[in-house]
Specification:
It is a single chain. The chain is an alpha/beta fold and 244 residues long. It has helices at residues 35-48, 63-74, 91-97, 125-128, 138-146, 157-164, 169-173, 191-200, 222-240, and strands spanning 56-59, 79-82, 122-124, 154-156, 178-183, 205-210. 36% of the residues lie in helices and 11% in strands. The strands form two sheets. The protein has a four-stranded parallel β-sheet, sandwiched between helices. Strands 3-4 form a two-stranded antiparallel ribbon.
Length: 244
């Protein structure tokens, strides 16, 4: 049984992808990064690292639908595991994403005006995202909000606008196997919204709940459910390609 070293003792190569503006990635022009850049970079990485072994992507938060979109574009991905699948084009999802809830919806049409110098205006993630609902312990959200490489990072307004307006066309039209492993007690992203997105995807889908955990699934029993589910998906992917 895998423990929280994320399968460190198994025969799995793990790559944590550091996308521009998060983590330690160096970016020549921080103010010009848009959501499409994230998708293109992840799809390019999948193609460049393809050595014939099965690949499973694990995406959390907005990285979940990002992973499905990149997998659909690149091809060759055995499965995507997602902890939530909010569709940024849906009103209910937009309300859930921000700390302002439904009060933010009247301003969404103004996203079309975010271009040129306006798109380069920096905003802090913790100003927009409802980090208070990240976990069942409020301390988690506060810690993330202070992390300059996480919730405390500064992103250009153009990146946020490009994400909220992205159609995710490949994810909607090309079949990818997707496993939704949604936290049972997620106070940030309702499971019903993720299920709606999952059911609209064209490929095979599986859904399960991570018991007793919030949006960031680090509490037991949910963490163990996630690790067990990940092991099952990896084993199925290896079996399908005849690899040990």
């Amino acid at each position: 049984m895998a423990r929280p070293g994320l399968l460190a003792d198994s025969d799995v190569d793990i790559t944590a992808v550091d996308l521009p503006l998060y983590g330690r990635t160096l970016t020549a022009s921080r103010t010009r990064v848009v959501y499409e850049d994230w998708i293109a970079l992840l799809a390019d990485l999948l193609e460049a690292e393809d050595d014939g072994r099965p690949v499973v992507l694990l995406g959390a938060s907005i990285g979940s639908l990002l992973a499905v979109e990149a997998a659909a574009r690149a091809g060759g991905v055995a499965a995507v595991i997602a902890t939530c699948l909010l569709d940024p084009l849906e009103r209910e999802a937009r309300a859930a994403m921000t700390r302002f809830g439904s009060l933010a919806l009247p301003f969404m049409p103004l996203l079309a005006l975010v271009r040129g110098p306006v798109a380069r205006i920096p905003v802090k993630i913790s100003w927009i995202a409802d980090l208070r609902s990240m976990g069942r312990d409020p301390l988690l959200g506060r810690l993330c909000a202070r992390d300059r490489r996480g919730g405390g990072a500064w992103l250009p307004l153009g990146l946020l606008a490009s994400y909220l307006r992205h159609p995710h066309t490949a994810a909607r039209t090309r079949a990818v196997t997707v496993h939704l492993m949604h936290p049972e007690l997620d106070a940030w992203t309702p499971a019903a919204l993720s299920e709606g997105t999952l059911q609209a995807l064209p490929g095979p889908t599986v859904s399960r709940l991570l018991r007793g955990c919030g949006d960031f699934p680090f509490e037991e029993r949910g963490l163990q459910d996630l690790l067990d589910g990940l092991e099952e998906v990896l084993a199925d992917a290896a079996s399908a390609t005849g690899q040990p």
